[in-house]
Design brief:
nine-stranded mixed sheet, binds manganese (II) ion, seven-stranded antiparallel sheet, about 450 residues, alpha/beta, 23 strands, globular
Length: about 450
């Protein structure tokens, strides 16, 4: 046999898809990204798309038949979509799991203060950020405030900075002229969490004797617009996210740049492939979109929450099936991003095994760090099943890992699903500048992920 027949060759897959289809799919994704800068926004956007695609909100105890399309939202921050298949749930489900949260700068519970004639908000960063990347970029303020007024609770949505006429916010940086000390520091020490304070105003109230005249003026604005008093920050979830939209990158427009590709670039194709199914799938297909992955998957909306088990238990009960039996026969694509080999930083990657842009949907047998710690490590049998599904459907795929073995590493939700006795493998899209306020992916990889999820659901 020839080398061509015997060797595995990871190469760009431009010849495997029509450029028009790839470009058109990316347009839909960019629009989704711009409307989904927090997990709450993403859930709202996904629920609207699901309704338009014939999904209805699931009611416990409701009878289900093959072809039914249902969804359930978990506390406005996570959701599950399902299309009921021909076979019994006892034969398992085809499950995809991705996350909707992304690294950002959360607003602290008592954030507003005044200093030197300026009003600022204290923050608490969310997820693994490089702190130096967040000052000196325009920020939006997003989230909800549950205003408590005389026993009445009113939930108010906050979104400032997305509309072109809106003001934006910023964390200031130090001018280079006075930064010689800062520039000598290690990159982990050049910026402190306590220094990531967001500038929100400077006009004082007119009263001469006001103690904190700028803070008071800002509180008056917040009260006027949202009915808020300072204590209402305590029952709020507000965060700052980058105030720029997704765009094409490169003369040839082969990339998409944007905030929150990790992990909306997997959530979007996993969900849209399910919504787009044109026939009833053999197995019931479930797309799980969770929150809190970036901070360890704990909490009521994270992957470790029993919300998923409760939903699946409800479905199983309607068919007289035991949940454990359903899980035992289920297969999961844990859909999360991996690093793309970056020519600017070649030293941290291992060329043969790391993901590469444009080489397709990336199968990651194991993640983890320091000797596979914190991974589920998919079985050889499962890897064979999945690559065969992709090959049959003509999906361009590649293998990937997370950098050189001693370099670091990371984890995904895969192990929490595998721990439930569900055969699970990681699959995702290689990302450049992962966890930066502006990340980059290839349109071709995004499209191949969509095709891969579709083939998986119908297998
Ligand atoms: Mn991720
Ligand atoms: Mn991440």
């Amino acid at each position: 046999m020839t080398a061509e027949q015997l060797f595995y060759d990871k190469k760009p897959a431009f010849d495997r898809a029509a450029p028009e289809a790839v470009a058109a799919y990316a347009e839909g994704y960019k629009a989704f990204l711009d409307r989904s800068k927090t997990e709450r926004d993403a859930v709202k956007e996904m629920a609207a798309r699901a309704e338009a695609a014939g999904f209805t909100a699931y009611k416990r105890g409701q009878a289900l038949k093959p072809g039914d399309r249902i969804y359930q939202v978990n506390r406005a921050k996570g959701m599950i979509l399902a299309v009921i298949g021909e076979k019994s749930l006892a034969e398992g489900v085809c499950l995809t799991a991705a996350h909707l949260d992304a690294p950002r700068v959360d607003i602290r519970t008592l954030p507003l203060y005044e200093s030197e004639g300026m009003a600022l908000l204290k923050t608490h960063y969310y997820g693994g950020i490089k702190k130096y990347q967040w000052p000196a970029i325009p920020l939006e303020l997003r989230g909800v405030v549950c205003v408590c007024d005389n026993g009445e609770i009113k939930k108010v949505e906050v979104s400032v900075g997305a509309d072109p006429s809106d003001p934006k916010f910023v964390i200031t940086d130090l001018l280079p002229h006075l930064a010689s000390e800062q520039m000598q520091k290690k990159m982990t020490e050049g910026f402190k969490g306590e220094g990531l304070n967001v500038l929100v105003g400077s006009r004082p109230v007119e009263e001469k004797d006001a103690k904190e005249p700028v803070k008071l003026a800002i509180m008056r604005l917040l009260h006027e617009k949202y009915g808020m008093k300072e204590a209402d920050f305590l029952s709020a979830e507000l965060c700052c996210v980058p105030a720029f939209n997704a765009c094409d990158i490169g003369f040839d427009r082969t990339f998409v740049g944007g905030y929150g590709h990790d992990d909306r670039c997997c959530s979007y194709p996993a969900a849209t492939a399910l919504m787009g199914l044109e026939r009833i799938p053999p197995h019931t297909c479930v797309c799980l979109l969770v929150d809190k992955e970036e901070v360890g998957s704990d909490g009521v909306t994270g992957m470790k929450s029993r919300h998923f088990d409760t939903f699946m238990g409800d479905l199983c009960r309607s068919q007289g099936v035991v949940l454990e039996e359903c899980f035992e026969h289920s297969v999961c694509l844990s859909a999360d991003v991996c690093n793309a080999f970056d020519p600017n930083y070649p030293d941290v990657s291992e060329k043969r095994n790391d993901g590469r842009v444009n080489c397709g949907f990336a199968l990651v047998k194991y993640t983890g760090s320091r000797g596979k710690s914190g991974t589920s490590d998919a079985t050889a049998e499962l890897m064979a099943r999945i690559r065969t599904i992709f090959d049959r459907a003509g999906v361009a795929w590649q293998t990937a890992q997370l950098g050189k073995v001693d370099q670091g590493g990371g984890g995904t939700v895969a192990m929490y699903l595998a721990n439930r006795n569900i055969d699970t493998v990681d699959a995702g899209i290689p990302v450049l500048s992962m966890h930066a306020p502006f990340e980059v992916i290839s349109k071709l990889d995004l499209y191949m992920a969509f095709r891969g999820f579709e083939a998986f659901y119908l297998a």
